[in-house]
Structure prediction request, 66 residues.
Amino acid sequence: AANNYLRSPGDPYNWVGPNVHFRHNGAANVAYCDGHAKASTKKANVSANDSSLGDLSTDDSAYDLQ
Prediction:
């Protein structure tokens, strides 16, 4: 079964590397828990295998509910 969870950069189970796809003119459409959505650009961890992969932040701040 596939899992569609976003793994934060600090997640110890993030062994596959960055998994956000920035496909829309270098941005990813992101829906937040508070109900808003926006196009976000890549902040970190460009994949050596695919330049459209990355993370939403250099730390876990973009993945934290606070």
Observations:
- The first strand starts at residue 20 and ends at 21.
- The beta strands are 20-21, 27-31, 37-41, 53-54.
- The radius of gyration is 12 Å.
